[in-house]
Amino acid sequence: MTSTDMSLDALCAALQASFARANRLLAEIPLPGELMAGGPDWSDSGDGPIPWQQFYSRQRLKLESAELMLACHVRRKTMARSAMLSTRPPAWWQGAHMVLEVHLAVADGVCTLRFQAAAGQTSIAPRSGAALRLKLNPQQQAQLAELRLEPPAQRRSGHWLAGLLRWLRRVTGNATK
To answer: Buried b / exposed e across 137-176, counting CB within 10 Å, b at 16+?
Structure first.
């Protein structure tokens, strides 16, 4: 399958448009009172009927915010000057890559973007599916270049050593530091 290229700005605009459309559709849902105008009088007490409008809320539903997180891959050596992110990992011969989380948030008609290193293990996308390749503008490239990422080998070594020490304590009852 071929990959789909899209600018990150276009993805933000599409998310904003979907958010606005969802709020328009929610605003068009009729209130229960509008559906049953002139509804039946079901009161059986002598005090008079209870208006059926008292049983329904006059509040309309509205989305306050929407968030989208994508796990994207970028080659480690070219991360500072990279103009493309991909949702599919590169082939093994193309060198080491970093997994980033791209967070898009829409609130009050504004789309905000944030990059961060992927937390923990991320699932690897299958190579058979079509990839989404996101093109970054110069401002987004600068934001990505400012991101300080430590290599995964350094991150894993601390967890590996801590795991080994826990195992030694469990087996021997103590461990030296």
So the answer is: eeebbeebeeeebeeeeeeeeeeeeeeeeeeeeeeeeeee
